[in-house]
Specification:
single chain; alpha/beta; Rossmann fold; 7 helices; 5 strands
């Protein structure tokens, strides 16, 4: 006798879990919810993690969709990665570029911005006061992408 089987939970608990999942799904499908793709250089992952945390703020109806890339822009997997990123960008309404010196030089970030524009997405660049690049890249200015400080991003997104 005995054993500590892992299966089997009460149906009451399962119904509660199901109800919780249903509520989360309704929130995710809410027309007020804005999905945001974050384009950033991998070197900025710590700052972007903090930016993601803002989405958890109860006063924000934002869901950030982001994927870090570890592949060179011209790697053997680049076409596959571009395809998957295109799918993800297409599922969002806004692309936010976390603009730093590393992002300004990233071919991936530039490609994500171009793809977002091609797909008709709004693109906004943001920066922290400590990480703004010395100059705004030409691919930002040529596309007339608005650059807002990090602390003004949520307000700007609310106006879209």
């Amino acid at each position: 006798m005995g054993g500590n089987g892992g299966g089997g939970s009460s149906s009451r608990r399962s119904l509660g879990d199901l109800s919780s999942l249903e509520q989360k799904a309704k929130q995710a499908l809410s027309p007020d919810r804005r999905n945001v793709f974050i384009s950033f250089a991998f070197e900025d992952i710590d700052d972007v993690t903090m930016l993601r945390g803002q989405a958890k703020n109860e006063n924000n109806d934002l869901e950030f969709v982001d994927r870090s890339l570890h592949e060179p822009y011209d790697s053997k997997n680049a076409d596959y990665i571009r395809s998957k990123l295109s799918d993800r960008i297409n599922q969002t309404s806004v692309t936010v570029v976390y603009l730093t010196s590393d992002a300004a030089q990233s071919k991936w970030v530039q490609w994500e911005v171009q793809k977002s524009i091609e797909l008709g997405k709004t693109v906004i660049a943001t920066h922290s006061k400590n990480a703004i690049p010395a100059s705004i890249p030409k691919w930002i200015t040529d596309n007339k992408i608005e650059v807002v400080p990090w602390n003004g991003l949520a307000k700007k997104l609310d106006t879209l």
